[in-house]
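Suppose you are handed a protein chain with no further information: no name, no annotation, nothing but its sequence. What can you learn? This example shows the usual starting point.
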Amino acid sequence: MKFPPWTSISEAARLLKEGEVVAIPTETVYGLAGNAYEPTALAKIFAAKERPTFDPLIVHIADISELENIAKDIPDAAYKLAEAYWPGPMTMILPKKDCIPDLCTSGLPSVAVRFPSHPVAQAIIKESGLPLAAPSANLFKHVSPTTAEHVAAQLADRIAGIVDGGACAVGVESSIISLAGEKPTVLRPGAITPEMFAKVIGDVAVKESTSKPGQAMQAPGQCDTHYRPQVPLYFGEVPAGHKLPPHTVRIAFGKQAGPIPAMVNLSETGDMTEATAKLYAYMHDLDNPDYDLILVDPIPNTGVGMALNDRLKRASIKTLP
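A reasonable first move is to predict its three-dimensional structure. Written in structure tokens, the prediction is:
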């Protein structure tokens, strides 16, 4: 496998200012960063990921004050949420300023913005002096990367560099809340739960995200099939008596019994935060041609478990072989 040399913070900032794209660590997953103001850099992101242009990108900033450079008509609710949960795994959708190219937002009048908490991401944004568009640093619809090695395995020959910031602490993509409509609406679950949003700004809606081919999405991560390993993955109860393929492996959760012994356990104690941090790493580890099928135990759909269920539902095949 060909790896690009691991890239320093200063080198990454230089490459980004020159219009290149670089993989950077965040607390959620690794992102493939490019200058959010520059359509050519944005086009390189879409090309490297093989991502359709109807899937908008998230713009990353390194200070709450920079929000006004990206968005307009910013409601008070946005500042309340920013004070509560930034820097951190929360993305807000707001009306965009004209300086953000339509390519970044898939032609939508709104822009997705996030202030990551990872110190390396913050340092790169500050040193580059740029807001950075940065979707997950993986091929479109594949499992998101939570280590620099995951990035290199998929994109090594396609990008200018990779900054190694260690394993991601959160492990799934950011929560996305839209403040561009009449009512605040959660479009993608994550570590910031609907209950946490409501605690700060009152009642919020939760939208069950679906996608239509070729239609611009309201936010990233809305495809009905997404986050998929190459080995088929099945999430949920296995029907009694179903004959599984011979080389099936199981990702357990808690103390549940399963149809076969567990290969790994997301959290033996049932801790949702631990499970979230481990999920993608285990999916990468088990995405091995020696296996025929990956089973994942059911996970309670509460709190951050909503994020786990959302990702696994999109990653899962619908019927067992």
